[in-house]
Design brief:
Number of helices: 9
Number of domains: 3
Order of helices and strands: HEEEEHHHHEHHEEHEEHEE
Low-confidence stretches: 62-66, 378-384
Largest sheet: 5 strands, mixed
Length: about 425
């Protein structure tokens, strides 16, 4: 929910609560006032009627057309009372509400039950009219205030949304310089200044980290290449014992693994820093077919049964290097962890890239396969597999960056990795 909408709804709810509460209080207070006024008028008429009877020594049937007055002879004095009732008015052909005051008048030694009736329907009509007017005024006022509040908030928060739009379009790898227009609002100007300062620092740190990663990787390549060359030269030396040869081979293998690890970590850093941007489509079909040709000898060496169902010209919007990372790591993972005479199934269509390979179930059930440096400890894993534990982590990183998905499942003695575009 947008901030302006949320603020407007909150304002509307509070306003409705206040006006509703005020309306109820106003309605009942108005009815109370009208009721008290009707009672007060009845007692005024009572005093006027008693005074008239005392002066004239005569029972008057009416004093005013607004009230109905009746007299009824009584054997005993009656107690004064006031009640609300409904009376049928023949002239109007309807039953209407009245307030009645009953009291005793003594004349010539006789008691008379005197009743004065005051119509209430006029007061109720007045209350309803005033209440309806109040509701109309309240609704109109709320609508006007809401419109004004929305326009005011939209104008006030315009600098905020402008800054938000600039941040959404900010790309750190392009070394963009962020600048914000002054809004005239102190808080927004301070926020813009803080964001501008923060993005400059982030950009500087990003460039420093990028340079450090590239320099470190480059500097490591030279000593690793020297170690590899020296060990290969040593292996050609005459007179080496079996133990010496074994140690030199282990050094050479370790150097190769360290070189591969260095390249993988550098690639991970580049992916995390969004250094791969690409707006064109990459043909996955072509990459997959090239990789299958590249791994053909290894597949034949392990006597693996390969089944491939590859659709032609499957292209997605991704950098070619990242597409190569996906295909290469999933394919090499399947070949590496499939025993000799095992089977590999490959399927590529417009929505998914799926690779399945035969093998025993993993001890971890595949929970940590996409974690960095994770290696499955299992007697069923083929021997001689030299892994850095970063291949699947690379694929997962690419999937996250590209807003894609990668899933793993096991069934019918097959490990299945599915990459969703």
């Amino acid at each position: 929910m947008r901030l302006i909408t949320k603020n407007t709804l909150s304002y509307l709810i509070i306003t409705l609560i206040v006006f509703s509460a005020g309306g109820f209080i106003f309605y009942f207070q108005l009815k109370k006032i009208m009721s008290e006024e009707a009672t007060e008028i009845l007692f005024q008429k009572k005093a006027l009627l008693i005074s008239h009877v005392q002066k004239t020594n005569n029972i008057a049937e009416t004093i005013s057309v607004d009230e109905l007055i009746s007299f009824k002879e009584s054997a005993f004095p009656i107690k004064e009372s006031i009640t609300d009732t409904l009376l049928y008015i023949a002239t109007d052909h309807e039953t209407l509400p009245y307030r009645q005051l009953k009291f005793n008048i003594e004349l010539a030694g006789k008691n008379y039950e005197t009743t004065i009736s005051k119509p209430l329907f006029e007061s109720e009509d007045l209350v309803e009219t005033i209440t309806a007017s109040f509701v109309i005024i309240a609704v109109s006022l709320i609508l006007i205030l809401l419109c004004f509040n929305f326009i005011f908030l939209k104008s006030t928060w315009k600098p905020f949304f402008s800054s938000l739009n600039i941040l959404n379009n900010y790309e750190i790898e392009k070394h963009q310089e962020i600048s914000f227009e002054r809004s005239g609002t102190k808080e927004f100007d301070e926020l813009s200044a803080s964001i501008s300062k923060m993005t400059k620092k982030i950009s500087t740190n990003f460039q420093n980290l990028k340079s450090f990663t590239e320099n470190a990787s480059h500097e490591l390549q030279t000593p690793l290449a020297i170690i590899k060359t020296k060990t290969e030269n040593l292996l050609q030396t005459q007179g080496l014992s079996e133990e010496q040869t074994k140690q030199i081979i282990e050094i050479n293998q370790t150097a190769n693994r360290l070189r591969k690890l260095n390249q993988t970590l550098l690639l991970l850093a580049k992916i995390e820093n969004n250094q791969f941007t690409f707006d064109q489509f990459t043909d996955l079909t072509e990459i997959l077919k090239n990789k299958l040709k590249l791994y053909e000898d290894l597949i034949n060496m392990k006597s693996l049964g390969l089944t491939a169902n590859i659709s032609e010209h499957i292209a997605i919007k991704i950098h070619p290097i990242l597409a190569d990372v996906i295909v290469s790591n999933l394919l090499s993972n399947a070949i590496k962890y499939t025993n000799e005479n095992g089977k590999i199934n490959i399927e590529l269509n417009s929505k998914t890239f799926t690779i399945s390979n035969s093998g025993a179930e993993l001890l971890s059930k595949g929970k940590n396969l996409f974690n960095r440096f994770y290696k499955e400890n299992s007697t069923e894993i083929p021997s001689g597999t030299d892994s850095t534990g970063l291949g699947l982590a690379l694929v997962k990183q690419v999937a996250d960056i590209q807003k894609h998905g990668i899933t793993y499942s096991y069934g019918n003695n097959y490990h299945t990795f599915t990459y969703h575009f």
